[in-house]
Design a protein that fits this description.
By secondary structure, this protein is mainly beta. The protein has one helix and 23 strands. It is rod-shaped.
Length: 324
């Protein structure tokens, strides 16, 4: 014959046994425990010593290291009975509401922790459902990200240069504009008419801090003394503005504006050229073609040639208009 237990298997409430004297004592102990455990609420789980003037029914989770009357009761529920503290050991899975935190807490069998864990979630949906592709999903009229007393940054990080870190703007789930680092480390703004084919409207090179637009692109080229540098043209024909980047030389004398063709009919026509900048048309430049102390330009298939006949390296700034 199986012996009948003295307490209930889940909450550990004491049973009234047959032929038991003072049954009210056992009954009242069960009521006391139910009063504690039903709608369990604790004042705090961080106070390590008993408060000086508790009210009857005040309940705490005893943290470590406990002192005073709570010493040795770490993790237990402590309830003030009017003359002494009563301690109830929790069981794994018990939940309580901590008033000082305004949050739910749960006992996992060892410690009390937050009932709602917001770290390392596999997904979070706010007014919608998240999925594997969009582990954070928000559906609403607006999303607010604000400062905490100073500035605020939104960081979008990618694993490597060939990956993508961008913002994609959609219309009825079809992409129409994208901005960010898409496939390399140049910042680009792209647009699309159909959501599948995107054209770069504006890009920024991180190394040179130069800009390229759909019909406007710019850059810098440094050419050693008595040497030739090559610039790829964005299209077979267009306009180019070139000037020497130098703090002491007048820009007008070392600048030029040209209309070029680097396609099937090579040509380079001068719109404006300074006194120290020469247009050598379709000549093949070799670093000594032009006059000494002069910069020269000439065209070849798909490229502009820039020759520096000065004794030091010179940097040239260029801007293309059209040609894309």
């Amino acid at each position: 014959m199986t012996a009948f237990p003295d307490t209930s298997p889940i909450l550990g409430l004491p049973y009234i046994l047959s032929a038991q004297a003072q049954k009210h004592v056992t009954h009242n102990e069960s009521i006391r425990m139910l009063d504690l455990l039903v709608q369990l609420t604790v004042i705090s789980r961080t106070i390590t010593s008993p408060p000086a003037s508790p009210a009857i029914g005040d309940c705490y989770v005893v943290p470590a290291p406990a002192s005073g009357d709570w010493e040795g009761q770490e993790g237990a529920l402590a309830v003030w009975q009017g003359t002494a503290w009563a301690f109830t050991p929790p069981q794994a899975g018990w939940r309580a509401y901590a008033l000082d935190e305004a949050a739910g807490i749960t006992f996992d069998g060892s410690v009390w922790g937050n009932s709602v864990i917001l770290q390392n979630l596999s997904g979070l949906g706010i007014n919608t459902a998240s999925d594997a592709t969009n582990p954070l999903a928000v559906s609403g009229d607006a999303t607010l990200l604000s400062h905490d007393g100073a500035g605020h940054q939104l960081k979008i990080n990618k694993a490597g240069s060939s990956d993508t870190a961008s913002l994609l703007y959609q219309s009825n789930w079809s992409g129409r504009a994208e901005m960010g680092l898409a496939g390399d480390d140049s910042f680009r703004i792209k647009v699309s008419a159909d959501g599948s084919s995107f054209d770069t409207a504006l890009s920024f090179d991180p190394a040179s801090a130069t800009t390229q637009a759909k019909c406007l692109s710019s850059g810098k080229l440094t050419v050693a003394a008595d040497n030739v540098g090559l610039i790829d043209t964005p299209g077979a024909g267009g306009f180019v503005l070139i000037t020497v980047v130098h703090a002491t030389y007048p820009q007008s004398s070392h600048s030029g504006i040209f209309c070029y063709d680097t396609g099937g009919s090579l040509a380079c026509d001068t719109i404006y050229t300074g006194s120290s900048f020469a247009n050598l048309g379709t000549a093949v430049l070799d670093g000594t073609t032009g006059s000494v102390n002069t910069s020269s330009i000439a065209v070849k298939t798909g490229q502009l040639q820039i020759e520096n006949r000065y004794t030091n390296p010179w940097t040239y700034s260029y801007t293309f208009i059209g040609g894309l």
